[in-house]
Amino acid sequence: xxxxxxxxxxxxxxxxxxxxxxxTGPLLCLGILAPLGPRIARRxxxxxxxxxxxxxxxxxxxxxxxxxxxxxxxxxxxAGAAIALTQVVTPAWVRAKTDQGAGLLTGxxxxxxxxxxxxxxxxxxxxxEALGGWEPSLAIWALPALIGFAVWVPYALRAREPVAATVGxxxxxxxxxxxxxxxxxxxxxxxxxxxxxLPEILVDDGMSEGYAGFLSGVTQLVQMIPAFAMPVLAARRxxxxxxxxxxxxxxxxxxxxxxxxxxxxxxxxxxxxxGQGGALGLALMxxxxxxxxxxxxxxxxxxxMGVGYLIAAGGPALVGAxxxxxxxxxxxxxxxxxxxxxxxxxxxxxxxxGKPT
Length: 357
Known about the structure:
single chain
């Protein structure tokens, strides 16, 4: 949606606030609906949940291509809700099916999240130009969801048992769950704030819009490597403090580089991508490592995404408000730096706890 937002606003006459709901709405869906995931996973086979969610994602995405305000918002909310359930129950399914390959599968999962965002960013405008409008450029993303649905249907038909879950884990009083949730929230806030405002920051430094968009795409491309590698590396360690230090340190180097030496921004996209992609991979893997059973994994994942995406939803607006007040970009970049730094104390308990026994 973000690359197409200007055209959508112009055609539908949306205010900035109304248009903002189209980008923050899915995040709010993830935050509000994620806690339902574990409850549903205890009642129905996860394979069926995923298959149904993929179908709903396809329908919601296709609705956005019909044109008009109502289908646009309805489709966004429908797809957002379905994606929320998928992201919550998938780690629990991974934990239930395998122990030895959990890091690899979680790495592939987090890499797919980043890859999807990267591909969509690069292709949104070319699809709009090739297909004749923003509506088909949005609707075409129903096709990958339909392919995913077709892949999962055989698993759904064979599945009989829900995830074996222990009901009643007091996760709201679980310090580890809160530590993971804060990491998810802060890294998501930094990530979504960065992709929302980085192009404009770079344009303000004198770059063309095309080159600024290219640099934003580069940092998302870089993120795919650590998003895959971080869960694999985390699964091989009793504690993950060293990984957390690398994540926070590299992201800080990237942001400081953009602030102090913007002429070398292409260089800074690499450490920024390593830090932010690695943070996503670690945040997704920690519930798998710390949960004592698949049910607790689902609970920790739901709490991480519920709390995390609610926190993240306010990030782009906060950075934008700081820019409005200061009328320059150093203070907003300072806010991004703070979002990154506080990930270290927030995640410290979760990365130091060690594997469950």
